[in-house]
Specification:
This protein has 425 residues and is an alpha/beta fold. The chain has 15 helices and 13 strands. A 7-stranded mixed sheet has the order 2-8-7-6-5-3-4, sandwiched between helices. Helix 9 links the parallel strand 5 and strand 6. Helix 1 runs antiparallel to helix 15 and helix 13 runs parallel beside helix 15. It is globular. The mean pLDDT is 96.
């Protein structure tokens, strides 16, 4: 496709967009006296207009039934998570029994690592990516310390080569082979939050399993963004948040994936809670933990109904749109935004240049572009914000922008380019 950095071209693309009507299903920020470009769905997705009704339904049930809402509400709270399971499973490419929505992201990662990071003998090491999201880094460090191991020797980070921004996948795979029977677990962000690099999760999983290690992924920047096939790839475990591309409220509920080959193993170590207990006998309150089969057995406490209702509102929209159509628009729109940014950079090369450090290959990225602004500082980002662009700044001089297919448009991409050019200091 031959792109044009014009409003006419952008509007023509929007007119042909089969998902264009979904934009009307979301609230856009209006705290500035101008039309705004919201490009930070990789941090917090926009609120679906339907959320208020979904939450109000549960507030009304609480008001009407009190505790009996667990059984008498239109969507009984006792099994509320089950209303989310099948839709969430479609998004991550899993069987419904392999998925549950519960808790928060880092909580779920810790719960999963209790089960899948089992250092024994010389098999004590974890491989992760350097410059992982800080919460992942802290979680991994604390898991290593919890087992009495040494961060310096037992936590192996694979970093970009000197002078490069991206991690070469061959370096990850080679490090897995090199570590061999000393490797207990690989735990990597499926999409790196800083660069937007999408890793080959199938290849990493295969390599990890070949040396006898367990393999898991933090999918915070992948779920609702990337077309995932966790079951087919054979991933051991994964977790993701609901508030980024999945548009399910600030700090919203998180998803868990546990491959079916593990989900029916009651002897797998875990930190247990009563909502993970076999629901047929849960209220008998007997000692001795008897987990539900599948990912549901990793639940701890009563379902957070209000947060789950917000998540259900968004999952219903995803289910209507379908990840295949979302993925097609993601690739088209991200490519157009890339073209617009490069065009603005060429037109202003005497003052600065914009280097996109996200992979150019559409199979190696999702709906995010990370822009390294050479010759510019935070003042550029601040100027963008004043022009109504809501994006994300990462030190020392990277602007992350994420055109979310469900609610962003090609015209948004064009308008971002105009604002970017006008904001150069």
């Amino acid at each position: 496709m031959i792109h044009q950095n014009t409003i006419a071209f952008a509007r023509e693309m929007d007119e042909k967009d089969p998902l264009k009507s979904f934009r009307e299903k979301f609230h856009f920020p209006n705290f500035m006296d101008m039309d705004m470009v919201y490009f930070t769905g990789n941090s917090l997705g926009l609120q679906p207009k339907s959320v208020q009704g979904y939450i109000q339904e549960e507030l009304d049930a609480w008001s009407k039934f009190g505790v009996e809402g667990h059984f008498l509400a239109e969507k009984p709270w006792f099994a509320y998570h089950e209303f989310l399971t099948e839709k969430a499973a479609k998004i991550v490419g899993a069987n419904p029994k392999e998925v549950v929505v519960t808790h928060s992201l880092t909580t779920n990662l810790h719960l999963l690592m209790v089960s899948f990071f089992k250092p024994e003998g010389k098999r004590t090491k974890i491989i992760c990516e350097a410059k992982a999201f800080p919460s992942d880094q802290y979680a991994l460090e604390s898991q290593v310390k919890f087992h009495g191991l040494n961060i310096d020797t037992d936590l192996i980070e694979v970093a970009p080569r000197e002078g490069e921004h991206l991690i070469r996948e061959e370096d990850i795979l080679n490090k897995i082979v090199e570590t061999g029977d000393e490797l207990a677990m690989v735990m990597i962000g499926g999409v790196n939050y800083y660069t937007g690099q999408l890793f080959d999760m199938a290849a990493i999983t295969k390599a990890g399993h070949a040396v006898g290690a367990k393999v898991g992924f933090d999918l915070a920047h992948a779920a609702g963004n990337i077309n995932l096939k966790l079951h087919d790839w054979g991933v051991d475990f994964a977790a993701w948040c609901g508030y980024k591309y999945l548009n399910s409220s600030p700090g919203g509920v998180s998803g868990i994936f546990v491959h079916e080959r593990h989900g029916y193993n009651p002897d797998l170590p875990r930190f247990a809670g009563w909502w993970g207990y076999d629901k047929e006998t849960r209220f008998q309150m007997e000692p001795g933990f008897n987990p539900m089969r599948g990912a549901e057995g990793w639940q701890l406490s009563n379902a957070p109904i209000l947060g789950m209702s917000a998540h259900l509102a968004s999952l219903d929209i995803f289910d209507e749109a379908g990840m295949d159509r979302i993925g097609e628009k993601r690739d088209l729109m991200t490519a157009y935004l890339e073209f617009v940014i490069e065009d603005v950079s060429k037109r202003n090369s005497d003052r600065c240049t914009f280097e996109i450090i996200t992979p150019t290959d559409k199979t190696k990225r999702g709906a995010q572009l990370s822009i390294l602004a050479h010759g510019q500082g935070k003042s550029l980002f601040d100027a963008l914000t004043k022009k109504g662009v809501i994006a994300d700044w990462r030190e020392p001089n990277v602007i992350r922008v994420a055109p979310a297919p469900l609610y962003n448009s090609f015209e948004d991409c064009y308008n971002f380019g105009v604002c970017l050019g006008d904001s150069i200091q």
